[in-house]
Amino acid sequence: SPANAHLSETEESPANAHLPETASDLLRYYELWNRHYTKWPSLNEFSDYLRDVPKDRVHHSFKMEVEVLRKLFANEHPAQLRLIQLENQLKLIPRKTFQDSTIIGGYRRINKHYDSFYEASTQLVKRRLLADNDHSDSNHEVDGSK
Q1: What is the pTM (predicted TM-score) of this model?
Q2: How many CB atoms lie within 10 A of CB 1?
Q3: Cα–Cα distance for residue pair 43/86, rounded to 1 Å
Q4: Could you give the CA distance from residue 105 to residue 108 in angstroms, rounded to a whole number?
């Protein structure tokens, strides 16, 4: 019956939902993680907790903590689903940064091509002006052969 299943889950939950004793040696921010896995902090909450630390270091620490937590719980443990959610919060950030850097890189390439084109056309105009001034007769013969 569903009621009995719920009881067995809640009876098991306190025993296997919290961190093992060895976790305090492995996790740098043990006090944040030493609670039921459903209450573990999101990346934003973790960042708020470490508000004086540079963002890249916060993200690195968060990633390391999640990796330790993954090893502490069995693969079939429900905490693994929460850890996947936390990892996905980290994955969204580099993707956005990469997208922005790709767009900026595209603009730089366009500007570089434009500068190259502008320089080449400027050289052609200068060459043509010199040719017109120095060899006006020979220039007309070339134009006539077109």
Answers
A1: 0.54
A2: 6
A3: 7
A4: 5
In the predicted structure, residue 117 carries a pLDDT above the cut 90 = no
* Per-residue model confidence as pLDDT tens digits over 35-74: 999 999 999 999 999 999 999 899 999 999 999 999 999 9
Q: Calculate the alpha carbon distances from 38 to 42, 57, 85 in Å.
A: 10, 24, 11
Q: Three-state DSSP class for 74?
A: coil
Place of tokens 């570089």: 112
Q: How many Å apart are CA 121 and CA 133, to the nearest integer?
A: 18
* Sign of CA pseudo-dihedral 85, 66, 47, 57: negative
3-state secondary structure of 76: coil
Q: Assign 4 to helix, strand or coil.
A: helix
Helix, strand, coil shares of the chain, percent, nearest 5, are: 80, 0, 20
